[in-house]
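Annex B. Sample input.
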Amino acid sequence: MEPIEKQGEVDLITEWFDYDPDRGILIRKLKTRSDAHDEINPSRASIFFNGKWYDYATLCWVVHYKTFPKGIVDHKNRTKWDHEISNLRDATPSQNQQNKASFGIYAKGVTWRNRKAKPYQAKIRVDGERLHLGSFATEEEAAEAYRRAAIQYHGEFACLE
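Annex B, continued. Sample output.
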């Protein structure tokens, strides 16, 4: 059960907003001015409401489940503007980071070292600690080691891209 002040915040949010879970769209039920749109653009990162900034996905979660998430709202497919309820899940900040794709030139979890025999290194972060998974002759071998470890340690939050 939510604390009383949080429950009051949930009640206010659900009074002002509705949510289409299949389309992932927030709908403003009450208007503060006549030119306000009924549907709120889902590509917005956040919404200012009642003197406070709210993450769009968090508002979708609150309206749908009538409670705040325990952690943060994670997008399973990593598409920030896809707010369909089937794409949203409650996550810890660590789980949210595990669900991020690689941004470097190598596969996720793989780095290059200037070593002749085994220049590719695989690493993974688990509970804040970096684990060395080994050194490998090819990027593909290192990526496979990361993939196996990500499935083992991160489970449903493992991002293999």
